[in-house]
Design a protein that fits this description.
The protein has nine helices and five strands, in the order H-E-H-H-H-E-H-E-H-E-H-E-H-H. It has a five-stranded parallel β-sheet, with helices on both faces. 45% of the residues lie in helices and 12% in strands. Strand 4, helix 7 and strand 5 form a beta-alpha-beta unit. The chain is α/β, with parallel strands linked by helices. The radius of gyration is 18 Å and the shape is globular.
Length: 219
């Protein structure tokens, strides 16, 4: 076999292996982005999720600090470059973790408006050519009234409404509120996890991804 043919075959094998990776889009706000984590490229929850899942997966971090689920919020995630990049990523699995910034007084109206926006995001991703499996993550526990984020809104209004929405559409639900409860030491500023807190989130998401990957259809 000559050198040109060998090079072509190697490139083809590399492309095929890359194309078969399961792409996981992590959609969210500063907690997904890895705000306040010194080495976010290594220790944010999506980065740790990549390490847990291994080389057969490609995890994309599409988190943006301050982003809201609500289109009427002060920074709608759907108005950002991260939104465009996440769609272009063509995920097989989409993990949607939004709602924390929606609890701010300037953003909050009612649970219905939040759910309508979350539902629209999930449906838009579900309709992509890759038909990704949808994983809905409940917001993490907010330990302090910081950045105008209100845990009372998250707990009393957001959690039940998001649960009901996920059940209605049979989307996989992850309870990150329960997973991050009673661990304030892992949330130094009361809102954002440190690497240890991000690891708890990553492990919960990994379990959901492993269940949903069985239903993924590679194009």
């Amino acid at each position: 076999m000559n050198l040109h043919k060998l090079t072509f075959l190697l490139c083809l094998l590399t492309f095929t292996a890359s194309a078969q990776k399961i792409r996981v889009a992590c959609i969210g706000n500063s907690i997904t982005f890895g705000y306040a984590i010194e080495d976010r490229e290594h220790d944010s929850y999506p980065a740790q999720l990549q390490q847990l899942l291994g080389e057969d997966y490609e995890v994309g971090n599409f988190g943006l600090s301050g982003a809201t689920a609500q289109r009427e919020g002060d920074l709608p995630w759907t108005s950002t470059q991260q939104y465009q990049d996440a769609k272009a990523f063509a995920p097989h699995i989409a993990v949607i973790k939004l709602g924390t910034n929606d609890s701010k007084e300037r953003n909050w109206l009612n649970a219905e408006r939040l759910v309508n926006s979350l539902e629209a995001i999930a449906k838009e991703f579900e309709a992509l050519p890759t038909h990704p499996r949808i994983i809905i993550a409940l917001p993490a526990k907010a330990y302090k009234f910081m950045f105008s984020i209100r845990d009372s809104i998250i707990y009393n209004y957001e959690l039940p409404a998001i649960r009901q929405m996920a059940k209605k559409h049979r989307w996989h639900l992850i309870d990150l509120y329960k997973a991050t409860d009673k661990m304030p030491e892992c949330f130094p500023d009361g809102i954002h996890p440190n690497p240890q807190g991000a690891a708890v989130i990553a492990r919960k998401v990994k379990k959901a991804v492993k269940k949903e990957v069985r239903k993924v259809k590679l194009l």
